[in-house]
Amino acid sequence: MPYYIQSDRLYYELVISKAKGKRTAKLEEMMILIATNTIRKKQGNYRTTDDRDDCMQEGLLHLFLNWKNFDERKFPYNIFPGASFSYLTEIYKRGLGAGYNSITEKRSYNDARINISIDAMNEGNGAHFI
Q1: How far from the centroid of its chain's Cα atoms is residue 93's Cα?
Q2: Which helix (H) or strand (E) holds 94?
Q3: Domain that holds residue 47
Q4: What is the distance between the alpha carbons of residues 62 and 59, in angstroms, rounded to a whole number?
């Protein structure tokens, strides 16, 4: 667990925010701290500071949209004290990846349409194995 966020306080803010149905100001501050400290470690991956800032915003968007999916019953604090931090960090890192892929125009494997026809192999005679 990092020194800049207390795991019990983060867990508490997540539970309170889920009960209220909206993020508390303290939880938003903690999310931004997670974002700034996580992207600092990946500083060299970006060509420009604009790319880095765009990816950071995409990661924060994912974080602000998906924070409420944390299940405190599945990961109780007394058994998994760092689960809330790990959960939020993983959401943010996946958002960073999505932002980076959109900037570099990379496609996922699902977007690539590869058509392989068995009839087209071996001049239309089908596939033969020797």
Answers
A1: 4
A2: helix 83-104
A3: 22-104
A4: 5
CA dihedral 113, 119, 120, 122 (to 10 degrees): 140
pTM to 2 decimal places? 0.75
Q: Is the model's pLDDT at 33 over the cut of 90? A: yes
Q: What is the mean pLDDT of the chain?
A: 83
- Alpha helix ranges (H) inside the chain: 7-20, 25-41, 49-66, 83-104
The total of structural domains in the chain comes to 1
* pLDDT tens, position by position, 9-19: 999 999 999 99
111: in domain: no
Check: CB of residue 50 under 8 Å from CB of residue 56: no
Q: 116, 35 in Cβ contact below 8 A?
A: no
